[in-house]
Design brief:
Layout lengths: L2 H13 L3 H8 L3 H8 L7 H11 L3 H9 L8 H25 L1 H11 L3 H32 L1
Helix pairs in contact: 1-5, 2-3
């Protein structure tokens, strides 16, 4: 197994994120991540550092990925621990964001008092707005890249 396959396998089996989700967290396109994971392009150092940070990899975890020993089936307990550690880190990031932006925290707290039907409606609208904003950012990035 080559090194890029190890990262792909880790993403799929351990952190259980799609390429789109990881690409967003790395601030790169899904297509570029696909090239890295399929060995068509080498992972640059800055992306490797971001992946190590994103996945919360210990030196041993990184060694296992690079050497192709990334968590075979018989290590399902360690796989579960790694997944939980990743999820805890993601939750901590979300909490830090809520601390940093009290208005967002306030909105979420208010929504938590709604009945479940209204909560679902509000969250659905919030997610739709966030997706629209993301699409706008992507659109402007493409314009900027074509302009320069």
């Amino acid at each position: 197994m080559i090194f890029s396959d190890g990262f792909k396998r880790y993403r799929e089996e351990i952190v259980q994120l799609s390429q789109v989700e990881v690409a967003k967290r790395l601030n790169i396109s899904k297509q570029l991540l696909n090239k890295y994971e399929n060995g068509k392009s080498q992972f640059p150092d800055d992306i490797l550092r971001k992946l190590v940070n994103l996945y919360q990899l210990s030196p041993m975890d990184l060694y296992n990925i690079i050497s192709g020993k990334a968590y075979p089936e018989e290590h399902s307990e360690s796989t579960m621990v790694l997944r939980e550690r990743f999820e805890d880190t993601e939750t901590e990031r979300a909490i830090e964001l809520l601390k940093k932006f009290p208005q967002l925290r306030s909105l979420i707290i208010s929504a938590s008092y709604y009945d479940s039907k209204k909560q679902e409606k509000v969250i659905h609208k919030f997610v739709s707005i966030m997706k629209a904003i993301e699409e706008l950012y992507c659109f402007f990035d493409k314009i900027r890249l074509n302009y320069y």
